[in-house]
Amino acid sequence: MSRTIAIDPVTRIEGHARVEIELDDAGKVRSSAFKVMDFRGFETVLRGMQVEMMPTVTSRICGT
Amino acid sequence: MSAKARVSIEWLSGCSGCELGIVDLHEKLLEVLDEIELVRIPILMDVKEYVAADVGILTGSIRTEHDRHAAREMRRLCKSILAFGTCPVYGGPHSSAYPHTTDELLDGAYRSNASTVTSEVPTDVPRLLAGNRPLDSEIEVDLYLPGCPPHPAFIFEALMSLVRGRAPGIGRHSVCFRCERKMVKTDRKTLRRAFEGEFDPEICFLSQGCLCFGSVTLDRCLAPCTKVGVPCFSCGGPSEPVILEPQKDVRSEVALRMSHLTQIPEAEIVAEIERQAKTHFAYAMASPVFRQKPTFLLKKWTQSPTPAGGTA
Predict the structure, then answer these.
(1) Is there a contact between B113 and A42 (Cβ–Cβ < 8 Å)?
(2) What would the DSSP string read from start to end of B181-199?
(3) If you ran DSSP here, which 8-state letter would residue B308 be given?
(4) Would you identify the CATH topology of the domain B5-164?
(5) Chain B environment of A57 (Cβ under 8 Å)
(6) Is the pLDDT of residue A1 over 90?
(7) If we measure between CA atoms, which residue out of B10, B120, B124, B24 comes closest to residue B69?
(8) For position B307, what pLDDT does the model report?
(9) Is the ipTM of this complex over 0.90?
(10) CATH 3.40.50.700-classified regions of chain B
């Protein structure tokens, strides 16, 4: 019987993620997906900020 | 000795730098662990559910539907809630999404991003809320600890005060209190950026014509930046006088102070701060602290068609 295994949330990483693994009737992996649940919009946020701020603010994209 | 206090940690939209801040307690961490038991901390433990605890620590801001759900669950199960870091207190660095719509942000990241292969916005992920918000827009908060991240000295005091049920013995100074540069009067006539020319490491940035927001920023950092030649960008959020007094506004306060220290006209400094608003209000732009002040024009300033030069 086909089934889906979900690991939600994935722990001991930085941030929020979910892993989904689909198995077919024989128990073989049909597909797998890694889903990132975070979104803060840094691509747009950084536009218009002073260039000298980039080292301090981009280090806050990921703090680990 | 009584039983250890149960501490549960959850992160919302943030960077996990605050969790690293806890590790930065170093030897003090052993002292903390004598009094607390970590029952949930996603970066270290595989506990997926929300669990009952004496102290709930939340890092990150409210940005997605999941953040809202997580905050409510933590409030329901924890006796007291600590807003840990600038994100839950004021919104954090991604607060500067304030002038943009959520759709603009998604467009910038997925649809029209030159370095992204896909042109589709991800589905089956938590829905984004209309804007980035501090934690207390959603749940009641018992203790606020801004700082990006807060210095371990403040983390230690905040944790111990919550665990021992006493008021935290934390200073209410601005960043200037810890900065060793001297404020002196100079005949400086023009503004300059931190990368323009040589700066005297002993003298205040304002005296030397460079914008620095240390005087209107709460000290939760012990002023590491100005010690290494970087002006304060206010990552800890506004100082107490700015929070408490309606007339005090970071823009006019800095401009007045700088114009007294130099020969630069106050109006010129005000205009420059407005041009650089996205930089200097970045971390706390989402906070209602600024809505009742002249800075309520933040959206207008940051959408100005003539941004300051040297933008990223």
Answers:
(1) no
(2) -B-------S---TTSS--
(3) P
(4) Rossmann fold (3.40.50)
(5) 93, 233, 282
(6) no
(7) B10
(8) 47
(9) yes
(10) 5-164
Closest CA to B110 of B102, B101, B119, B123: B119
Contact between B64 and A38 using a beta-carbon 8 Å cutoff: yes
Q: Residue A32 is which amino acid?
A: S
Cα B96 to Cα A42: distance, rounded to the nearest angstrom: 9
Q: Give B64's contacts in chain A (Cβ within 8 Å).
A: 37-39
What is the residue-wise DSSP string for A5-60? EEE-S--SSSS-EEEEEEE-TTS-EEEEEEEE-----HHHHTTTSBGGGHHHHHTT
The token pair at B260 is 């007294």
pLDDT in tens, B122-164: 989 999 999 999 999 999 999 999 999 999 999 999 999 989 9
**Beta-carbon count within 10 A of B51 CB:** 14
Q: What is the DSSP string of B97-132?
A: GTTS-HHHHHIIIIIT-TT-S--S---SSPPEEEEE
B94 with A42: CB under 8 angstroms? yes
Cβ neighbours of A31 in B, within 8 Å: none
Chain A residues whose C-beta sits inside 8 Å of any chain B C-beta: 8-9, 11-16, 35-54, 56-57, 59-64
**Residue-wise DSSP of B33-47:** HHHEEEEE-TTT---
Chain A nearest C-alpha distance from B306 (Å):
10
The three-class DSSP label of residue B54 is strand
